[in-house]
Amino acid sequence: MFAIIKTGGKQLMVSEKDVIYVEKLDAKDGQKVYFTEVIMIDDKIGDPMIKSAVVVGKVLKQGKGKKIRVIRYHPKKNINKVYGHRQPYTKVEIESISINGSGITVPTIKEHIHETHAKTPVKKTAAVKAASAVKKPASVKAEPKKVEAKIAAKSVSVKPAAKPAPAVKKPAAKPVEVKKAAPKKPAAKPAVKKAPAKK
């Protein structure tokens, strides 16, 4: 049994137990991925997709491809730039292919987001527990709340940021008078003396 799925702007032909490399998916290692954009399964062709068809995969690895060198060069323009790029990918193993999605519950977008971005509860260490268990001595009297608030305000007071100085306006430049050039006189030609003719 094979299927043609669409993911990351590409169409891939897959079958069960295949390992494929797709454009980066928002999933952690070991998490299940559901491909619902199925174009074809065996001899059944979708129009354009097969409704209720699901291909289930398991994320094996998130990684980056080999580095490629990109060169930007314009002749005679002093533009010569070389930089590298590594394309991120997700390695997925196909677990099952289902035409009607029987026995497979595809999580909604909200459930998927909650599942991928769930926060783990932070456990308190023994030192933190011991510090919170220590009580204040009874001989020290608690000050009224107003006094504590004033003290806290003084110790944490933040000075307001200095206001930027207003921009100084420069006086407008005086208009420059354009002097007209005097009309040119034709240059006087120097008198050329002719040499007397030789006899």
Write a structural description.
- The chain has 3 helices and 10 strands.
- The protein is α+β, with helices and mostly antiparallel strands.
- The chain has a domain at 2-113.
- The strands form 3 sheets. A 4-stranded antiparallel sheet has the order 2-1-5-6, with no helix packed on it. Strands 3-10-7-4 form a 4-stranded antiparallel sheet, with no helix packed on it.
- A hairpin with a 4-residue loop joins strand 8 (68-74) and strand 9.
- It is elongated.
- It starts with a strand and ends in a 44-residue tail after the last helix.
Pattern of helices and strands: EEEEEEEEEEHHH
Task: Count every beta strand, where a strand is a DSSP E run of 2 or more residues.
Answer: 10
Shape: elongated
Largest sheet: 4 strands, antiparallel
Helix residue percentage: 10-25%
How would you write the strand order of the largest sheet? 2-1-5-6
Mean pLDDT: 79
Strand content: 25-35%
Q: Give the C-alpha Rg.
A: 40 Å
Structural class given helices, strands, pairing?
A: alpha+beta
Q: For the record, give the distance between the C-alpha atoms at the N and C termini, rounded to a whole number.
A: 121 Å
Distinct helical segment count: 3
**Which runs of at least 5 residues are low in confidence (pLDDT < 50)?**
none
